[in-house]
Write a structure and sequence with these properties.
By secondary structure, the chain is an alpha+beta fold. It has one domain. The protein is 22% helix and 44% strand. The protein has a 5-stranded mixed β-sheet with strand order 1-2-5-4-3, covered by helices on one side. Strand 1 and strand 2 form a beta hairpin. The longest helix has 13 residues. It is globular, with a radius of gyration of 12 Å.
Length: 86
Amino acid sequence: MAEEGFELYPILHNGRIYNIFASIEMTFREVRAMIDWLHSQGAFPADEVEAREREPGSLYSCPAEGHIFDVDVQGYEVIVYRRRPA
Protein backbone atom coordinates (compact mmCIF):
# COMPACT_ATOMS: atom_id res chain seq x y z
CA MET A 1 0.00 0.00 0.00
CA ALA A 2 1.73 3.15 -1.16
CA GLU A 3 -1.02 5.72 -0.54
CA GLU A 4 0.51 8.91 0.81
CA GLY A 5 -0.57 9.76 4.34
CA PHE A 6 -1.84 6.27 5.15
CA GLU A 7 -0.25 4.31 7.96
CA LEU A 8 -0.40 0.58 8.61
CA TYR A 9 -1.90 -0.64 11.89
CA PRO A 10 -1.80 -4.43 12.23
CA ILE A 11 -4.30 -5.72 14.78
CA LEU A 12 -4.97 -9.16 16.23
CA HIS A 13 -8.72 -9.64 16.66
CA ASN A 14 -10.48 -12.93 17.43
CA GLY A 15 -7.41 -14.96 16.49
CA ARG A 16 -6.82 -13.33 13.08
CA ILE A 17 -4.40 -10.59 12.07
CA TYR A 18 -5.88 -7.71 10.07
CA ASN A 19 -3.93 -4.89 8.46
CA ILE A 20 -5.71 -1.57 8.85
CA PHE A 21 -4.51 1.26 6.61
CA ALA A 22 -5.76 4.68 7.66
CA SER A 23 -4.85 8.33 7.47
CA ILE A 24 -7.11 9.10 10.44
CA GLU A 25 -6.72 8.13 14.07
CA MET A 26 -9.11 5.43 15.25
CA THR A 27 -9.76 4.00 18.69
CA PHE A 28 -9.41 0.28 19.38
CA ARG A 29 -13.19 0.17 19.99
CA GLU A 30 -13.82 1.66 16.54
CA VAL A 31 -11.42 -0.73 14.84
CA ARG A 32 -12.81 -3.80 16.58
CA ALA A 33 -16.42 -2.75 15.94
CA MET A 34 -15.56 -2.13 12.27
CA ILE A 35 -13.93 -5.56 11.91
CA ASP A 36 -16.86 -7.27 13.63
CA TRP A 37 -19.37 -5.52 11.35
CA LEU A 38 -17.34 -6.33 8.22
CA HIS A 39 -17.08 -9.95 9.34
CA SER A 40 -20.88 -10.09 9.82
CA GLN A 41 -21.27 -8.87 6.23
CA GLY A 42 -19.00 -11.61 4.86
CA ALA A 43 -16.32 -9.12 3.84
CA PHE A 44 -13.43 -11.40 4.76
CA PRO A 45 -12.57 -14.69 3.04
CA ALA A 46 -13.38 -17.88 4.95
CA ASP A 47 -10.07 -19.53 4.01
CA GLU A 48 -7.00 -19.20 1.78
CA VAL A 49 -8.74 -20.76 -1.24
CA GLU A 50 -11.57 -18.23 -1.07
CA ALA A 51 -9.03 -15.43 -0.59
CA ARG A 52 -7.35 -16.33 -3.89
CA GLU A 53 -10.66 -16.65 -5.76
CA ARG A 54 -12.25 -13.37 -4.64
CA GLU A 55 -12.31 -10.29 -6.78
CA PRO A 56 -9.92 -7.68 -5.42
CA GLY A 57 -11.45 -5.00 -3.22
CA SER A 58 -14.95 -4.44 -1.92
CA LEU A 59 -16.26 -1.07 -0.77
CA TYR A 60 -18.36 -0.80 2.39
CA SER A 61 -19.97 1.97 4.43
CA CYS A 62 -19.47 0.50 7.87
CA PRO A 63 -21.37 1.77 10.93
CA ALA A 64 -19.26 1.59 14.09
CA GLU A 65 -19.27 3.46 17.41
CA GLY A 66 -21.49 6.31 16.20
CA HIS A 67 -19.66 6.86 12.92
CA ILE A 68 -19.77 5.56 9.36
CA PHE A 69 -16.42 4.43 7.99
CA ASP A 70 -15.96 4.22 4.23
CA VAL A 71 -13.60 1.29 3.71
CA ASP A 72 -12.17 -0.97 1.05
CA VAL A 73 -11.57 -4.61 1.98
CA GLN A 74 -8.90 -6.63 0.20
CA GLY A 75 -8.48 -10.02 1.84
CA TYR A 76 -7.59 -9.20 5.45
CA GLU A 77 -6.50 -5.66 4.64
CA VAL A 78 -8.91 -2.82 5.36
CA ILE A 79 -8.27 0.62 3.87
CA VAL A 80 -10.17 3.32 5.77
CA TYR A 81 -10.86 6.29 3.50
CA ARG A 82 -12.99 8.45 5.77
CA ARG A 83 -15.05 8.68 8.94
CA ARG A 84 -18.30 10.64 9.11
CA PRO A 85 -21.04 11.01 11.71
CA ALA A 86 -23.75 8.35 11.64
